[in-house]
Amino acid sequence: MDGDRVEIDGGIMEGGGQILRVSTALSCLLGLPLRVRRIRAGRSQPGLRPQHLSGLEIIRDLCEGKLEGGEIGSTEITFTPGKIKGGTHIADTKTAGSVCLLMQVAMPCVLFAASPSELHLKGGTNAEMAPQIDYTVMVFKPIVEKFNFTFNCDIKKRGYYPQGGGEVVVQMSPVKELSPINLTERGTVTKIYGRAFVAGALPIKLAKDMSAAAVRCIRKEIRDLYINIQPVREPDDQAFGTGSGIIIVAETSTGCLLAGSSLGKRGKNSDKVGIEAAEILLRNLKHGGTVDDSLQDQLIIFMALAKGVSRVKSGPITLHTQTAIHFAEQLTKAKFTVTKWEEEDPSKDTYIIECQGMGMINPNL
To answer: What does the similarity note say (predicted)?
Structure first.
């Protein structure tokens, strides 16, 4: 069997957990046995971290596959997928490893399961180096559902660095196939809203400060819109540990959603957290794309699986996106092209990501 394994170099390009997520999800979907070498080779702690191992384990469980080399610190794994089944699956990072990244790896697979799925994902809901759960619900969900599927995401408990302890439950039904998307019209910004949160031992004043600082920063560029960033204190029974952060979303006349977010940490001024999120949002609004930097790479696997041509207008192509495209093309028959968008304003750094999807069909439906 080993002769037929697809060989993946986990140390190239972005060189992180994303390579594992994209390649194992596609391996599971396409029934391709996989070997990934040099996992996170260039990172300060190479090899699998709890986050990545939990992702591999949920994929293994989803399809009754076989995983070898699945331990913390391992730099090589082999994975032999089985048949994707629905039902209830649990993944627990036992750390502040991101539940959103667990969702990223599992979601494409359960779309092509034989029956509905319920994923219980445990870890950090608002963690560094990953989308916050608020981003997943407020931005990722409404946009990714344009591929013609829906899912429900119930935040049972929020969890923060370093302990985690959060839990979300994702419910979704399988589909026959995914429709392509066409996100090429940005439109004008019609609304800006968001939430600044504190949890645990932190006072609500910090949330108010984050919100006010973010509004002041956005006001310098956008003067004529009401900006509604709610300061909230997470109820104690719905949050584990202490954390703070902010997410700000801009909605456009064509239904695009772009965001900026930031997390608080010890010694970081709350004004700075608010300003950081506002600056990310403003930067995402400047490039004229229909998706922000965080969403860009998350759409690639769905574009690759969809039936037909998807087109997305974006800002500068991130290394994460280039990496996702590279491995999607290596493993599927999808073909991507990225071209500079010169039509409106050549000075803007805008691109069109186009994909002729492979047209994955759910064999179970």
So the answer is: Belongs to the RNA 3'-terminal cyclase family. Type 1 subfamily.
Type of residue at 285: L
Phi, psi dihedral angles at 113 (to 5 degrees): -80, 175
Is residue 8 a contact partner of residue 35, using CB atoms and an 8 Å limit?
yes
Angle between helices 99-110 and 17-30 (to 10 degrees): 20
3-state secondary structure of 285: helix
Under 8 Å between Cβ of 17 and 48: no
- The answer to whether 104 is annotated as binding is yes
Spatial separation of the C-alpha atoms in residues 357 and 264, rounded to whole Å: 39
Residue 342 confidence (pLDDT): 81
At residue 1, does pLDDT exceed 50?
no
pLDDT value for 254: 98
d(CA 342, CA 238): 48
Per DSSP, the three-state class of 157 is strand
Q: Which residues are catalytic?
A: 320
- Phi, psi (5° rounding) for residue 247? -135, 135
Cα separation, 90 vs 109, in Å, equals 14
CA 109-115-119 angle, to 5 degrees, is 55
Q: Is the pLDDT of residue 121 over 50?
A: yes
Tell me the per-residue pLDDT of 273-288, one tens digit each, with 9 for 90 and over.
999 999 999 999 999 9
The rounded radius of gyration (Å) of the Cα atoms in the chain is 20
Where on the phi/psi map is residue 88: left (φ > 0), alpha (ψ -120 to 50), or beta?
Answer: beta
**What integer is the mean pLDDT of 217-223?**
97
Longest Cα separation, the chain: 63
What would the pLDDT profile of 13-34 be if each residue is shown by its tens digit?
999 999 999 999 999 999 999 9
Contact 197, 238 (CB under 8 A): no
Is the pLDDT at 62 greater than 60, yes or no? yes
pLDDT(2) > 90: no
Query: Average per-residue pLDDT in the chain?
Result: 96
| DSSP strands (E only) in the chain | 6-9, 34-37, 66-68, 77-80, 87-92, 117-123, 151-159, 166-172, 182-183, 189-199, 227-233, 239-240, 243-252, 257-263, 309-314, 335-340, 351-356
